[in-house]
Every structure is written in C-alpha cells, then in structure tokens.
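Troubleshooting: if your tokenizer reports a length mismatch, compare your output against this known-good record of 424 residues.
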Amino acid sequence: MMRDEAIGLGKRMAGMDIRSRGFTERTQLETAVNSLLSGVEPLPHESVASALSCHRTLASPLLAPRNVPSFARSAMDGFALSAICITGASESSPAILRVVGESLAGHPPNFTVRPGGAARIMTGAALPAGTNAVVPIEACRQLGSTVEIHEAVVPGRHVCAVGEDFKQGQIVLNAGRRLLPHDLAVLSALSLRDVSVIRQPRVLILVTGDEILPAFSEPAADRICDANSPMLQALIQRDGGQVTAVAIVPDNPSDLCAALAANHSADLILISGGSSVGQEDHAPAVLSKMGTLDVHGLALRPASPAGFGRLNNGTRVMLLPGNPVSCFCAYELLAGRLVRRLAGRHDSLPHTVKHYPLAQDVKSVQRRTDFMRIRIVNGMVETIPGGASMLSTVAMADGFILISHDSAGCSSGDLVAVYLFENA
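Known-good structure output:
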C-alpha cells in the first residue's frame, strides 16, 4: 500500500463511532500490514556493552580492529621447527633434532631455534623465532635432549597464522545481523567492549477493562486476571522490543485519554481490549480524538476488531482485541511485524514453516483470512475448534495455519504451510 492509500484509510476512519453498529467494511490483512509498515524504518542506533548485546541487531558493519590471532601460534601439542630440517622424515628414517626449549601458552618464548633444533610446544603457544611448522606429539619421540621426528611437514603445518581467523579491517559481521551467543565470542576475541546496535523499541502496554485484575492474581467475583500482558511482554521481548510499563485502565474515555497523554517515551503503545463495537469499547474513538485511526476492523478471524493509528505526537498505537486468542493473533500477524521492523529485524513471521497434509476438510469464508490453531497428529494437520476466548486452543496447539482471503478452504490431503510454535 502506498502512503496516499494509507492516508485514505485514515480519513475514512476519522470521526467514525461504530459502537453498537458494527463494521460497515473490513480491511484485508495484507492491506493492513502494508499500511502499518509503510515508511517504517529501524530506530536509531545506540552503543551497548558487548556482553549485553545478545539478540540485538547490528547497526553497522563490524570491522576487525586487529588481526586474530595477532601472533603465529601452535594448533597442536608437539614440536616446533623449521620444516626444511625434516624433509623426507618418516617412521623408517626419522630426523633427529636438538631440543632447545619449550613454548607454553601465555608465556612468549625468549629464544630462537637454529637449524637442526626444535622446541617442545603446547596448543595455543607462540611459535619461537626460527620455526614455521609444528609436528604433532604422536609423530615424535623425545630422547633426552633430542627428539626423533617421524613425519615430514610443510611450512605452516599445524600453525594458526597471524590474521588467519580475522584480518584487521575485514568485515566480520554485516549490518542488520541479529547477534547470537557465539557472536559474543567473536566480539570478545576482537577486544570489542562495546558495539553499535539498533535501539530496542520501547513499548507501553495498556490493558483496558473494569473487570481486569493484575496478571497472576486470584480471580474475584466476576473479575478476571489479565492474561494478555504477560503474553505480550514475552512476544515483545522475542521480537527485540522492550516493555517500559504495563497499566490497567478502567473502561472510560477520560482514563484512557490520560494514560495515552502520560506517555512520553514509548515508540509503540499496545491497547489490549476496548477495540470492538460494544458500548464500552472506547479505544477507537479515543485514538481518533487524540490522533489518527488509520485502520479499524480487519477481514481476519479471530482478530477482526484490531486496528492502529498514531497519536498527534507521532507515537504509534495498536488496538488489540481483549480476547486472548484474538490478541495473540493480532500481535503475531500485525503488531509483531512492526516491533521487528523498528528493532531492525526482518518483519516476516518468526516461525519455522513446514508443510503437512490436512487430515480433514477445512472451510473458510472468502474475503477473510482465517488464523487456525492446529496440531500435528501422525504427520497430518488437525484443526483445533474453539472460540477466541479459549486459551486451551493455543495451549494444545503445535502451530497455526492461515487460510487466505481468496480461498473458501482446503480439502483433506492438501499440503498446507504450518507456522510452528517453538515447542513443536
């Protein structure tokens, strides 16, 4: 979607109050995604301690500030020598050299090995002057002050040369790379204490509803625990974001206005609940009043009440349904893409995709995308029935499938793309 189309969507939404009336039109998922991500660039960079940079995104190419290794060192336990001195050495005709010293890791040798000599050497130790190869200990036999060499080697054999791992000035890691645990070993080997990464998106979570109790608390009467914010916090962390605060907001416009106005530092606000068409669903009207409501109402099941826009100060706002499965669906298919884009990551769905045959016919409605929870049974895909409020449908799921808006469903035996959860 181009910028003008996105503006057009926002104008159609502006000033509309659809409470108790329902949606007159719904935006296709692909159109909504294009509108949401239009013009979005990764956030600015910041410098962080390398030890704390795991899973952060590199802001610029990482150049090696020095050679690694910075000195020629042995890759084996054995004897260091000049390769020319043992030309033709073999089991039947060993070369005999004088042992003139020993080189240990962390103790630079202060002697030179002359022709006809050798030095005992340990893995990782520096090669003494006058040597250019190492013979493994298994091919040697020390006899007092001499050593028999039973194997010929070429110069450089069993030696880690200067710059063999990384050469000074070379690009070690490319910009946009999500740093993995083994990348921290690289940063340490290069003596890089700090690294430039994309700033983490700061996300504020507002959970609306008079019936909502804090997460993990005991339910009381007709009030329920906040199930959405713990899930959203974990998903945001997975996608490279940082939750700055979680607040429960009562079902009235003034409190929601105050909560939005009090935000000064968030890059994104997620409003969970209050996004549909009931009398107490104030989020769309409040967002429209305080900024723009660009999209509201998706041709998507089970997250059709989702929407998004911006506050007048430019802060992005996502409206997520209150039902937990709908909230999960809206985050995975929409909000998560935005968080990843802001964090400098690829905005595609972060799931392993495998193809399996359907165990049954699956019906859908054209012009609507269906997000179906599934499990894999005997190598076949079975859909899991249940509504948007039933967390059991995701607890037992191995992943989900998406039935496109231009499809009326799939037949038993059809191969479908399965987006797998991590435990599948």
